[in-house]
Design brief:
- The complex is a heterodimer of chains A (419) and B (222).
- Chain A is built from 16 helices and 1 strand.
- Helix content of chain A is 79%, strand content 0%.
- By secondary structure, chain A is mainly alpha-helical.
- By secondary structure, chain B is mostly helical.
- Chain B is 80% helix and 1% strand.
- Chain B has 8 helices and 1 strand; from the N terminus they run αααβααααα.
- In chain B, α2 packs antiparallel against α3 and α2 runs parallel beside α4.
Chain lengths: 419, 222
């Protein structure tokens, strides 16, 4: 067997393992609270998470995958040494996977995205020094790591002030919520559809303009709003005079909203994070396909790679993620439907926009930013800010660690393959 | 998983737990006083023991809450105000315990002519407590509502009603004490002093409820 073939098979295995890891650990965050509040059974939560993660990964995942595959390392330099490029990308995958396993063992809040980006930069450096790195792109990505939590926070505060707080301040919170939930659902489905169909359905041979995509979005958003309206119309509201009791009646309606936001978060997560697993794999694939000939710079990410990523995320979810969900569900956290909605909506929208801009961001960090934003707007009961410090520290460790580990793995693998 | 550490266990839920312990203390006041009227002093003692136990548990919860307020914890209300609310809630349990202490440290018979007034004073005082309990039960929702809107208005309204009840309790205690002193030639001085103290302690439950209401209202004013 040729070396490139072995490397390609290795990268498929490591890529699948990474996708499994993402499905097993990261996905549970969004749905754990719905399971905990008994809004969803564990089976239904896994089913919904699987559908939306997969849709996000398969239909929107190509943008960020492109960035990981060929955005960070200079194309001219790597195309001269295609086999070394393939070895490096495989080493990057392995390095990120090792780091994530160590970090989860120690309970550190590290980001999958940061790990893989650090790893890719490390291999670029060892291959051809600082000249190999596409610095403007790397700078853009690093900036997006700072901007995405802030943007998530701002958007969440906006949603909190415009949507959640008026319900708490309303004399008829139930009736107001009945009107607002279909609106929010419509908006979520509008954004989901738009992100999928706007220049996105290349795999289905559709290339819609923004106007056409918006019309699709409006149609599907409207449909979702009507369906939601019909569902929540059946949730009874008794006559109550006590404002607190009146408010407590709204929890089942909020629970419907929570299911929708959790699905939205899963979609955005799939769209951004599938790339962490399949971006390097797509890179190795392009080398394998070129068979030693010069690399084609702009070949689209093949469908089967996104499919593989999506499928392994779902397998991770089904084999291990459900346990994480149950653990989260059992813990009493102060993130109830009414409080979690603004943060999850803001974070998911930010991550989805970043996905369309081909920026690999951390879903978890964006969500943390959003939660703190809502907390500062007094929409959370208590937040332990120590987590922020830990995240800051994990930034400092992650990139050097995965970069150095990638360099070591790269040198080792290069020696083995004698390339 | 790690993101969940952001959601520290909320001290507002622990406040609820504290209130449950305090509620146990207060729930013994009515049967304890009635046992005293029936001169069943063993039963009085049993109630006092139960109160002391619950009061001790309340102290433990109070300690836990204080321990749950590290500097890194971000709360939507001032930390100082929250600690004041905790301390104030604990005074209610103290009032119940002190009443039990007075009723057990000496067997003091309540004269038949005054039993009606003692019971009605107790009921008035317990009414203040019942209202403040409603207020604290809904405190979490009040926090979520950002201390404004109809939920907050309802809270202010309830605390104002507690103020009024406390004032009525004081008036009743004044009358009761007057009637007590009218008996100065019929019962011993020690009986009179003890009964006056018992009446005060019953009224102190309303005082403590009012004071807790005021602390919560102060958070609302911010």
């Amino acid at each position: 067997m040729e070396h490139i073939q072995i490397i390609f098979i290795l990268s498929i295995i490591f890529g699948a393992y990474m996708a499994w890891n993402i499905g097993a650990n990261d996905v549970a965050n969004a749905f754990g609270t719905s399971v905990g509040s008994k809004a969803l059974t564990i089976g239904a939560a896994v089913g919904l998470a699987a559908i939306f993660e997969f849709a996000g990964a398969y239909f929107v995942g190509a943008h960020v995958t492109e960035t990981i595959r060929s955005g960070m390392v200079d194309h001219d330099i790597v195309s001269a040494e295609p086999v070394l490029f393939a070895i490096g990308m495989t080493a990057a995958l392995l390095s990120a996977a090792i780091w994530l396993n160590l970090a989860s063992k120690w309970g550190w809040p590290v980001s999958t995205t940061h790990s893989i980006v650090g790893a890719v930069i490390g291999f670029g450096l060892v291959l051809a020094g600082t000249a190999a790195i596409n610095w403007p792109k790397v700078w853009q990505v690093v900036m997006s790591w700072v901007i995405s939590p802030v943007a998530g926070a701002l958007l969440s505060v906006l949603v909190y002030l415009a949507f959640v707080l008026p319900i708490y301040r309303s004399r008829e919170p139930g009736k107001l919520l009945r009107r607002l939930v279909p609106l929010a659902t419509g908006l979520v489905f509008f954004l989901l559809t738009l992100s999928m169909v706007f220049k996105g359905l290349k795999n289905l041979k559709m290339n819609l303009s923004f106007g056409q995509a918006s019309l699709w979005g409006l149609a599907i958003g409207l449909l979702a709003a009507v369906v939601t309206y019909l569902i929540i119309k059946r949730i009874p509201l008794k006559e109550e005079t006590d404002p607190v009791k009146k408010f407590k009646q709204t929890e089942p309606i909020f629970a419907v909203l929570q299911i929708i936001t959790a699905s939205y978060t899963a979609f955005a997560h799939g769209a951004n994070d599938v790339a962490n697993a399949v971006g390097p794999l797509a890179a190795v694939h392009s080398v394998w396909k070129a068979h030693g000939a010069e690399l084609v710079a702009k070949a689209p990410v093949p469908n089967w790679i996104l499919l593989l990523g999506g499928v392994f995320i779902v397998i991770g979810l089904a084999t291990f993620g459900y346990r994480v969900m149950q653990t989260i569900g059992r813990k009493i956290t102060s993130i109830t439907p009414s409080r979690g909605f603004a943060a999850e909506f803001g974070a998911a929208t930010t991550v989805l926009i970043c996905s369309r801009l081909s920026l690999p961001v951390s879903t978890t960090h964006t969500l943390v930013g959003a939660v703190i934003g809502v907390g500062l707007a007094r929409g959370m009961r208590s937040l332990d800010m120590k987590v922020v410090r830990d995240i800051g520290a994990s930034w400092l460790y992650t990139i050097p660690f995965t970069a150095v580990l990638t360099i070591l793995l790269f040198l080792g693998m290069r020696a083995i393959f004698g390339a | 998983m790690s993101i969940l550490r952001l959601f520290a266990s909320s001290p507002f839920e622990s406040l609820q737990e504290l209130l449950e312990k305090i509620d146990v203390c207060v729930s013994h006041i009515d049967p304890m006083l009635r046992a005293n009227i029936a001169a069943d002093f063993d039963e009085v003692k049993n109630h006092f023991r139960a109160i002391t136990k619950a009061e001790h548990e309340a102290d433990l919860v109070k300690g836990q809450i204080r321990g749950k307020l590290p500097r890194t914890l971000f709360l939507p209300i001032d930390r100082w105000h929250f600690l004041e609310i905790i301390a104030s809630a604990d005074k209610i349990a103290d009032a119940a315990e002190d009443l039990g202490y007075l009723l057990t440290v000496r067997h003091t018979h309540i004269p038949e002519s005054l039993t009606g007034e003692f019971v009605s004073l107790m009921e008035k005082s317990l009414a203040s407590y019942a209202l403040i309990k409603e207020v604290v039960d809904g405190f979490g929702v009040l926090v979520d509502a950002g201390f404004a809107g109809p939920i907050a208005e309802e809270f202010v309204e309830k605390t104002v009603r507690i103020d009024h009840l406390e004032w009525e309790t004081d008036k009743q205690m004044y009358k009761l004490t007057q009637h007590l002193f009218e008996l100065e030639n019929q019962i011993s001085v020690i009986d009179i002093i003890m009964l006056r103290d018992i009446a005060r302690e019953i009224a102190r439950l309303a005082d403590a409820s009012e004071s807790l209401g005021k602390k919560i209202r102060r958070v609302l004013a911010n």
